[in-house]
Inverse folding.
């Protein structure tokens, strides 16, 4: 459905996106993940035709966006994190205004607005949008984007800064859209949230593609690596017994260390050696490898600021 090939974007001396290629299949939920400044929004803006790439090609349903932009635009709706809904209008007025811009016939617009406001829990909101919470504004922004029933929905950081109720609502909606065959492309720092919905992941760091695969494959690929939480007042001493090819300390908080373990048996021997030398371990616990752990292994960085 969306094919990105050799995409590059330079801003003066900065290479914001460096030779990135990926493909998004119809009806899948595809996520661009990466820390601040990785290049995610730049890629989205190019896909939406809001920004010209320095090099590369984007095809949507076989149409090149550089030559068929109008047709391509009619297939998709986009909601940027920075997008604003009109503050001096109510939710209903915002939706009616947008329905006019989309040229929806009056009757269709009325029922679609009713349906979408219901879906997003905004039906009884008669107050001006300026009095809405961030979550309500975000929900209204997405509801508005869904008015023309787009084949592709693009969401830039859809759940950043939202209350848990709005986050769950948006997550469920994304899954519903997938069931209806809509293709969803989203960016996020919030790996834990993305993990609950995503089919395919492209991990971007410093404008480069570090990993691109189905979520399932990424998990399988890295499932040999284990994550262990170790508690010991002698953590620094214990580390001397663990060579880097066996396990690495990923993070430490006081006497609690998180290790990525590459060779389990050897790791356990190393811990045994440490204990044999009088070091006390108060807790050993294996944890499941998350998408965030995979990201850290790939980039050495955490996703959040
Ligand atoms: P965030 O999660 O913070 O939105 P991002 O992954 O979306 O980050 P981009 O906004 O695409 O990243 O930015 C990628 C890089 O390009 C950053 O270093 C940013 O400072 C730079 N950049 C973005 N827009 C411009 C611009 N108009 N002019 C110059 N540099 C820019």
């Amino acid at each position: 459905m969306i094919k990105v090939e050799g995409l590059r974007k330079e801003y003066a001396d900065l290479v914001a996106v460096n030779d990135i290629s990926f493909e998004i299949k119809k009806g899948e939920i595809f996520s661009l993940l990466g820390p601040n400044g990785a290049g995610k929004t730049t890629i989205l803006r190019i896909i939406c035709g809001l920004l010209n790439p320095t090099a590369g090609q984007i095809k949507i349903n076989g149409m090149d966006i550089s030559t068929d932009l109008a047709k391509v635009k009619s297939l998709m709706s986009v909601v940027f994190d920075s997008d604003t809904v009109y503050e001096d209008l109510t939710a209903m007025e915002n939706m009616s205004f947008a329905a006019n811009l989309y040229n929806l016939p009056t009757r269709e617009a009325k029922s679609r607005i009713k349906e979408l406001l219901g879906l997003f829990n905004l039906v009884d909101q008669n107050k001006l949008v300026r009095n809405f919470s961030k979550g309500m504004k975000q929900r209204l922004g997405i509801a508005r984007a869904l008015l023309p029933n787009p084949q592709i929905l693009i969401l830039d950081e859809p759940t950043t800064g939202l209350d848990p109720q709005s986050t769950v609502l948006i997550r469920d909606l994304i899954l519903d859209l997938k069931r209806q065959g809509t293709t969803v492309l989203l960016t996020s720092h919030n790996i834990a949230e993305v993990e609950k919905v995503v089919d395919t992941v492209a991990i971007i760091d410093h404008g480069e593609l570090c990993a691109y695969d189905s979520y399932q494959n990424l998990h399988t690929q890295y499932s040999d690596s284990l994550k262990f939480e170790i508690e010991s007042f002698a953590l620094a001493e214990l580390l001397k017994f663990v060579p880097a090819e066996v396990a690495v300390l990923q993070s430490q908080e006081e006497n609690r260390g998180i290790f990525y373990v590459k060779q389990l048996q050897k790791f356990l021997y190393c811990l045994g050696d440490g204990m044999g030398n009088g070091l006390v371990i108060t807790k050993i616990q294996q944890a499941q490898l998350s998408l965030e752990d995979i990201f850290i292994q790939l980039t050495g960085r955490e996703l959040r600021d």
Notes: The mean pLDDT is 88. The radius of gyration is 23 Å.
